[in-house]
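Progress note, sequence design subtask.
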């Protein structure tokens, strides 16, 4: 079974980690959102890409969900003391990643090639691709503050403003990063990780050519919404503010035009029949990944489900 997984940060990285434990590097590739990328202090920061790579490398800070473990904050404290912008926390080790990425980008190297080299240095054996090498930036439209950059909404404003919509700046002129369409084309099944549909998965699908490549394959998505709530982050709040009741069904409806199979949490078992009535093969199980073993257990179920679905297709 060859799998291409689409992922944002935290939720995506957890399932990608489980899948990477079970599938060999030639049977799993991970395509990651870069719509959250931000330039700060002249540095190019790719939060979701780093979360996925750090997680696969075993370097991630599991408590925060971002940055590296055993992190120190000397540089950041110095910036804060000087009155610099202190809303975006950057650890010392993490800064090293951003320094080197920025240096190489300034030399004209593409993000995908830099990511490949970083993965090799960190011991990540599975291919990890940014969705694109071009700058695509998620913009969040809000009631209170108008249009915000994603990190301004997410970190600076702590997701407080009410959202009215999203825009992926630069997406029309972007192309899938080298390797992305090949990974999707070679996959027997595409797995949409339990990531935020609005700001982690939609930006990936908005890159010209990616949605069509995904739709051509059997696709299995895992719900990031459990019992109407998110485990972490603003996905449920976004659904509610956009006038949609947050639920696993709302996620399945979001992906409905191209979705083959859907995995939701066992607490949402009551929604299985409704989603199945749309022609989506639906399965309920424990989808909470609070330990490394739970990531692997869910990944095992996802792969088994992909096998059933790929066979039927
Ligand atoms: P971000 O880019 O760091 O916000 O991360 P993602 O978009 O990849 O993931 C955010 C989503 O992951 C949230 O909607 C969470 O509800 C979901 N999530 C986090 N942990 C889990 C988990 O253990 N199980 C499931 N099913 N969803 C999770
Ligand atoms: Ca993110």
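Output:
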């Amino acid at each position: 079974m060859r799998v291409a997984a689409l992922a944002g940060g935290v939720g995506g990285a957890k399932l990608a980690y489980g899948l990477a434990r079970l599938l060999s590097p030639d049977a799993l590739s991970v395509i990651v959102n870069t719509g959250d990328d931000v330039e700060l202090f002249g540095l190019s920061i790719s939060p979701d890409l780093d979360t996925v790579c750090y997680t696969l490398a075993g370097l991630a800070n599991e408590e925060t969900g971002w940055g590296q473990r055993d992190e120190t904050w000397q540089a950041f404290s110095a910036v804060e003391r000087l009155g610099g912008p202190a809303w975006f926390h950057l650890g010392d080790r993490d800064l090293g990643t951003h320094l080197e990425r920025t240096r190489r980008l300034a030399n004209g190297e593409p993000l995908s090639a830099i990511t490949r080299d970083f993965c090799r240095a960190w011991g990540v054996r599975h291919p990890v691709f940014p969705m694109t090498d071009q700058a695509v930036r998620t913009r969040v439209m809000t009631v209170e503050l108008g249009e915000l950059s994603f990190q301004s909404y997410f970190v600076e404003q702590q997701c407080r403003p009410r959202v009215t919509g999203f825009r992926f700046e630069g997406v029309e002129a972007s192309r899938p990063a080298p390797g992305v369409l090949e990974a999707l084309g070679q996959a027997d099944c595409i797995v949409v990780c339990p990531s935020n549909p609005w700001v982690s998965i939609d930006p990936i699908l908005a890159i010209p050519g990616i949605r069509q490549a995904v739709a051509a394959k059997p696709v299995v998505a895992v719900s990031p919404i459990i019992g109407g709530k998110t485990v972490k982050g603003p996905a449920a709040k976004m659904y509610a503010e956009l006038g949609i009741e947050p639920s696993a069904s709302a996620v399945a409806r979001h992906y409905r035009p191209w979705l083959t199979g859907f995995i939701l949490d066992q607490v949402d078992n009551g929604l299985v029949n409704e989603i199945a009535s749309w022609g989506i093969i639906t399965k309920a199980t424990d989808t909470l990944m609070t330990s490394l073993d739970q990531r692997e257990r869910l990944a095992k179920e996802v792969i088994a489900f992909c096998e059933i679905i790929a066979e039927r297709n």
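The chain has two domains: 3-135+172-312, 137-166. Work on this subtask will continue into the next period as scheduled.
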